[in-house]
Amino acid sequence: MSIGTVLSAFGLFCPLVAQTSDSISMNLDKVLEVALSDNPDIQVANRTIEIKKYAKKETIAGLFPTVDFTLAGIKGVIIPEANLGGMKIKMGSEKSFTWTGTATLPLVVPQLWESLKISQSSVELALEEARSSKISTLATVKKAFYQLLYARDSYDVLRQSYALADENLTQARNKFGYDIVPEYDTLTAYVQKVSLEPKMLSMKNTLALAEMQLKVLMGVDVNEPIRFEGHLSDYEEKLFNDLLILKEDNGIDNNSSLIQIDIQKRQLILSERLNKLGYIPTVALQFSINRAYSGFLGYANTANLTLALNWTIFDGGSKYMKTRQNKLSIENLEQKQEYIKQQLEMSVSASLNSIETAAEQVVSNKSSVYASERTYEISSKRYEVGMGTQLELNSSATSLQQTRLQYVQSIFDFVTAQAALEETLGKVITDK
């Protein structure tokens, strides 16, 4: 009996868990699309960008005039008196009111102008941090998706092995009933079958956990009915093409950590310039109008136009100390950046070696699967006609199971290593 006939007879290509009719079908692209929309880390990063944009607008607001209004009511507790020839005259009023309006327009504010550049770099840093979060989320979701496919494909392999073991047991029992084979063959076939049940149960639990983990990373309810499409074997066709692309384009210039350090260095340079601009005086134009009422004097109105220059002559050396801090911080960032570059280059090299090794294992394991399938078919036919033993049949079935699992494992190793390398290189594969 051929393997295909056995698998079809036991319906092993049916879904592991019955899905409801209203469940949603998703492939990897759709899963990543949902994750980029609903993942909490992505949402937090997007809100952080908005916060930095509002902070920039807050800095810009400092260039516009400010208008203040003050209204005060005064109750005199002790009123000064004047003694004129024995007559006491109060020189004020028990109650008075005053209001003041002031408009101030900054004219020369070098530090504020430089602060705008720092605010812009803060927006750029937030954007890069959001991109980093996006890349990290995509890599994590991809790995979780591949983990689900790995668990499901491994479970399918175990189900196929279980179906073959069940068929072998049925055949052994029939032969034992006709006194063709000894009871040992029947017992051996039975042990071969039941030994797979704990493995299937364990893998089934692993699959359920992988599905829940993927849903959490996507940002959807774990009880959401979703059918995740695909098998690891689907990635075999483009496996070597991806390998060639990664070998040709594996520069680390797009790595988010390096880009963020560059932005932080620019911020420190701008902060140093901002600090030095503190030695330059600021000029502001101010117009104020005041109206006061006192029962003794009546109404009194004043208006003033002021051109104010503010210049810090001596600050105890605080600006100089700040400049020294910035220079040392820049040196730290440069050293850190060089160290990270070395680590990344080593990581890229190691990942490429792992990917290339996994690709070679895929080819080797696929050949082993084909050879194991042929071996099993031959041993099954030999046992059916009485030329082979149950031990040979069990051995070939076990070998087939192992080679199939190794084939699934090698593809899983390739795609997960590829996802990790893409994260290191700073590539977002879903960008259109």
State the CATH architecture. Up-down Bundle
The largest sheet, given as strand count, sense and whether it forms a barrel, is: 4 strands, antiparallel
What's the number of domains?
A: 1
Helix content: 55-70%
Mean pLDDT: 84
- Shape descriptor reads elongated
Q: Walk across the major sheet and give the strand order.
A: 2-5-7-8
Based on secondary structure, the structural category is alpha+beta
Q: Please give the number of β-strands.
A: 8
As a whole number of angstroms, the C-alpha radius of gyration is: 39 Å
State the main characteristics:
single chain; 432 residues; alpha+beta; Outer membrane efflux proteins (OEP); four-stranded antiparallel β-sheet; two-stranded parallel ribbon; 10 helices; 8 strands; elongated; disordered N terminus
Give structural notes:
The chain is α+β, with helices and mostly antiparallel strands and 432 residues long. It has a single domain (3-65, 108-280, 316-425), classed as Up-down Bundle (Outer membrane efflux proteins (OEP)), CATH 1.20.1600.10. It is 64% helix and 15% strand. It has ten helices and eight strands. Strands 2-5-7-8 form a four-stranded antiparallel β-sheet, with no helix packed on it. A two-stranded parallel ribbon has the order 1-6. Helix 2 (28-38) runs antiparallel to helix 4 (110-177), helix 4 (110-177) packs antiparallel against helix 8 and helix 4 runs antiparallel to helix 10. The longest helix is centred in the N-terminal third of the chain and has 68 residues, at 110-177. The protein is elongated and about 145 Å long. It starts with a helix and ends in a 7-residue tail after the last helix. Mean pLDDT is 84; it is low at 1-20.
